[in-house]
User: What shape does this take?
Amino acid sequence: MKLSKISVIAAIVLGGLVASSTMVRAADATEGKGKGKGNRMTVEQTLEKLTTELTLTDAQKPKVKEVLEETSKKRQEIRADTSTPQDEQRTKYRALMDDQEKKLKEILKPDQFEKYKKWAEENRGGKGGGKKKKAE
Assistant: This one.
């Protein structure tokens, strides 16, 4: 009788652990929803952030979104090509970001573009040692 009580308790504990680990994974997936490798923001999240930071006009939003989507698609293509050496991927990625910046410069007003450059530098991952903190 003792053995079956212990078995029942063990089964309940095991079931609880399985259920809680599933809930934790679901919560992690929800919190990180839309984030890719390295917690990169989605196009929609980036557009929302830039809309706020740069005060984008309704006319600018679809143009900026198109540039961001194009960059995102090309970035995924670069990452997916596992036959390309990492240093070559890095070179392609930098060229892609330079192209994005050039296109955004054509869309944004000069003051917005300056704000964009500061925002991009603060939020850049690898170059310059990671995110920079604002000095206050």
About this structure: Residues 2-31 form the longest helix (30 residues). The chain has two domains: 1-33, 37-123. The helical segments are 2-31, 43-54, 60-80, 86-107, 110-123.
